[in-house]
Amino acid sequence: MRAEEPTVRVEDGPDARMVVCTGELTVAGASSLHRVLRKHLLDRGRLLVDVAALRPTSAAQTTVFATVLARAGGWPHARMVLVAPDGPVVRVMRLAGHDREVPLAADRAAALVRLDSPPDRVRRTTELPQGSHAPGFVRELVRLACDDWELPDELRDRAVVVADELTSNAVRHTSGAGELVLTLDARGLRVAVRDGSPTLPTLPAGPARGLGVVAALSDAQGVTPHRDGKTMWVLLRRSAR
C-alpha cells in the first residue's frame, strides 16, 4: 500500500505564518516539505509548523526541520517552532536532540513566545562556490554570522581565520569547498567545511601557516569522513584563550 503523502495548509497571521502538516512524512514527502518550509521561511522569516497530525515513516525524516532552518540562515533571520502537544514527530525530535535546533511548543500561543528567543543550538549552512574566490566569500559569511549571533570580536577574528584556512585548503587540494556549516551552542562556535575528496589531511609540524594555523587557534578539531568526501571541523570556545 502506498504511503499517504503529507498535505500542507498555510495560514497567515500578523505575528507569524503557520504551516499545518498532516499525513505521512515519507522520503519524497520530506523533500517536498523542505521546499515548502524554505519558501515560507525566506518569505516571512517567522514560521510555526503544526505537526500534531504528521506521522514520519522513519526517524530520519524528521531531520528535515533542522536542515531547512539551517539552510534558510537560522537565527535571527529565519525562526521556526514546531507546534504539537505530543505525537510521533515531537517524541522523535526530543529523543534525537533535534529540539535543540528547532524548538517545540504545545500550542500556538506558546510557540509565538518561543519565536522571540534563539534555540539552544543555532546552525547556518551555505553551499560554497568552487575556485579562488571561495575563501573571501566564506570570510564574509563568518563575519555576518558572528555579528548576527553577537559573538565577541576575539572569537569572530579566530573564526574568520580558521574558516579561511579550511576553505583555502579545500580549494587547493580537493575538488573545492562544497559547504560551510556554522554551529553555535553552549560549547562554542563550530566551523566546518565539507569537500568532495575522501583524502584525509595531515597537519604540519609547525603553526606558521595553513592547517598549522587552524591547530593553533582551535580548542578542538577533527575530520568526519563521508562516502563522497569529508568534513573538516574546528571548535572555538566562547571563553578567552
Spell out the helices and strands N to C. Answer: EEHEHEHEHEHHEEHEE
Q: Which structural class best describes the helix and strand composition?
A: alpha/beta
The helix count comes to 7
Low-confidence stretches: none
Query: Helix coverage percent of residues?
Result: 25-40%
The overall number of domains is 2
| Sheet with the most strands: spatial strand order | 1-2-3-4-5
CATH C-level name of the largest domain: Alpha Beta
What is CATH's topology name of the largest domain?
A: Heat Shock Protein 90
Radius of gyration of CA atoms, rounded to a whole number: 19 Å
Number of strands: 10
Biggest sheet layout: 5 strands, mixed
Shape: globular
Could you give the distance between the termini?
58 Å
CATH architecture of the largest domain: 2-Layer Sandwich
Give the percentage of residues in beta strands: 25-35%
The named CATH superfamily of the largest domain: Histidine kinase-like ATPase, C-terminal domain
Report the average pLDDT across residues: 90
GO molecular function: ATP binding
Keywords: ATP-binding, Nucleotide-binding
Organism: Pseudonocardia dioxanivorans (strain ATCC 55486 / DSM 44775 / JCM 13855 / CB1190)
InterPro entries: Anti-sigma-factor_SerPK (IPR050267), HATPase_C_sf (IPR036890), STAS_dom_sf (IPR036513)
